[in-house]
Design goal:
Layout: E1 16-17, E2 22-23, H1 43-48, H2 74-78, E3 86-92, E4 99-108, E5 111-114, E6 119-122, E7 128-129, E8 139-140, E9 142-145, E10 148-151, E11 162-164, E12 187-189, E13 216-219, E14 229-231, H3 233-242, E15 250-255, H4 256-259
């Protein structure tokens, strides 16, 4: 069952931000070599296993009754706060997959209704976990509030509190050798092991350092992350414009099997 966090939670993008010298825990570290591939896997095997890298399409989300969120079981559905009127649904292909589909839903009189297209995304190199810790190279499963945003670029028009800063500068290479530059042009902090209501750059971790930090939605760099969920840059800008703090947005994220619980 996913670990649910809808109150102050902290975690991170597993990333060293060049200007801020912050060590988070969800994304590839600028200016450093990425962590080793899963045991027994060569770098070539890691690249080949990445469906987005090899142009293989992710599966369509599970079908569901009209007005409900597709693929969610009763426990996951019950974990969504009653006041949430926007849900970013990030459904991982498999528990150990780094490929995810993301779609925005809004609560209407008819129930949950898609409010945007289905987007292709990446998650952590080794997939998903309900018990995230530093260095496990997995994205946390659960329901988390979305309260704060920021980036290297100016605010694209979001109503979320937005921090523009050069501290979002990143360089180096990802797991597939891809350039990480621009990955933090736009970010949305996922409230896992962080203090909601603060900049994504804040390093407070209420659950402790061992539980990680800096788990974000951010711009995709063409490969798996250390723990974040990444979308194309233009998609991130669009999502930022659509999210409204007055509608209490949350992200429901995890592999399909976990979310079906």
């Amino acid at each position: 069952m996913p670990v649910t966090h809808v109150a102050p939670r902290r975690l991170g993008c597993g990333t060293v931000l060049t200007a801020a010298a912050l060590l988070l825990t969800g994304c590839a570290a600028p200016g450093t070599q990425p962590a080793a591939a899963p045991p027994g896997a060569s770098p070539a095997a890691t690249v080949a296993a990445d469906p987005m890298r090899s142009a293989l399409a992710a599966p369509s989300p599970a079908t569901s009754a009209p007005g409900t969120l597709p693929g969610l079981g009763p426990r996951t559905t019950a974990a969504i706060p009653a006041d949430a009127q926007q849900v970013v649904l990030a459904t991982g292909q498999e528990k150990n997959s780094s490929t995810t589909t993301v779609q925005l839903y809004e609560r209407t009189a008819a129930g949950w209704t898609p409010a945007g297209p289905l987007w292709q995304a990446h998650n952590a190199l080794r997939g998903w976990t309900g018990d995230h810790h530093v260095g496990d190279l997995r994205s946390p499963v659960g329901v988390f509030t979305l309260t704060d945003a920021g980036g290297l670029r100016p605010n694209p028009g979001t109503k979320l509190p937005y921090t523009q800063s050069s501290a979002f500068t990143i360089d180096g290479s990802g797991f597939n050798g891809e350039d990480l530059q621009g990955s933090f042009d736009y970010v949305i902090a996922i409230d896992y092991n962080r203090k909601p209501g603060t900049s994504p750059l804040d390093t407070t971790k209420p659950l402790g350092e061992a539980r990680g930090g800096g788990i974000w939605l951010h711009a995709d760099h063409g490969g798996p992350t250390h723990g974040c969920v990444s979308l194309p840059t233009d998609t991130m800008a669009e999502l930022l414009r659509r999210l409204d703090p007055g509608r209490h947005p949350v992200i429901v994220m995890g592999d399909a099997a976990s979310l079906a619980g």
